[in-house]
């Protein structure tokens, strides 16, 4: 998968001619590839979007919000209803197969690392269409989210602790020592629970991330986005303690699928954070999300390819068989 992405033009960070590998929470070996220091997702997305745009058989509909999943009389998925967000125009798209990839639910929480689009609307649509939804109580909180001067939540990647940064309480003590064999790099749920306990004990709304002992050139090279974002908020990553607190980060549950990404509604697939494939158990390990999205996207594509010739065009409930197709077909 990594090789395929590189052939597609994704530029991962290299060290002495080999992929540079990092460690994050709960990891026992360095095996996380990364790009642009701390911009892996953005780089993977850039190369995938470029490939899609180059493919003349793919039509991209911008500013098109899916508002519901359509089902036929048998309860199979047969398309989507959408709204053009610039004109408000509603459209129906009929399809033999729909792949839902609408991301997580972070915006349901007051503090989240997620962008504004992560509202869980895709999961709600799948539920309305009759899909089984699973493990919604498994929400992962990220230990180190920084509130910027502009009031935005900014995630400070675990890779900073992978490079040796410490977590300290208000007295300056490293409270994770003795709490987990990996100390600050324990699994996220363990670290977050300790942070919450420390914040309650100390009556504060934050703890501190300390990267002052890490060489300046390492921080600059590995975490350029963090250095710049902290600087914008008047905080110096190299010499100051950084105020951080936990925030909702990743939905482990979602629309239940099998290992081919099929949901319980025939013709409806789910992929990425919206899906609950089961591969993360109850606690995803850092950096397995992008990987899951990529691996399952390929499995879904293969499954659709295998079944497409057997699938017949379907009509939504309430429409007559011979009715003319809608404008969005
Ligand atoms: C700050 C941050 C850092 C992270 N770092 C890592 C990392 O280093 N490694 C890792 O593995 N994971 C990381 N994760 C997690 C990972 O990025 C996400 O789980 C992953 O991007 C989810 O991908 P996705 O395609 O499923 O959803 P998203 O990337 O959230 O995309 C969902 C898309 O669906 C669109 N959408 C939603 N609803 C609708 C609708 N109704 N109609 C039309 N479109 C809709 C949204 O606009 C969005 O474009 C990070 C997450 C965050 C927030």
UniProtKB/TrEMBL annotation:
Organism: Candidatus Hakubella thermalkaliphila
Keywords noted in UniProt: FAD, Flavoprotein, Oxidoreductase, Pyridine nucleotide biosynthesis
Start-end of Low complexity biased regions: 316-329
A molecular function (GO) term: L-aspartate oxidase activity
Stretch forming the signal peptide: none
Keyword Hydrolase carried by entry: no
GO aspect biological process, one term: 'de novo' NAD+ biosynthetic process from L-aspartate
Stretch list, region Disordered: 308-329
Protein name, as recorded: L-aspartate oxidase
Pathway where this protein functions: Cofactor biosynthesis; NAD(+) biosynthesis; iminoaspartate from L-aspartate (oxidase route): step 1/1
EC number from the UniProt entry: 1.4.3.16
Cofactor(s) needed: FAD
Family: Belongs to the FAD-dependent oxidoreductase 2 family. NadB subfamily.
Chain ranges of the FAD-dependent oxidoreductase 2 FAD-binding domain: 1-290
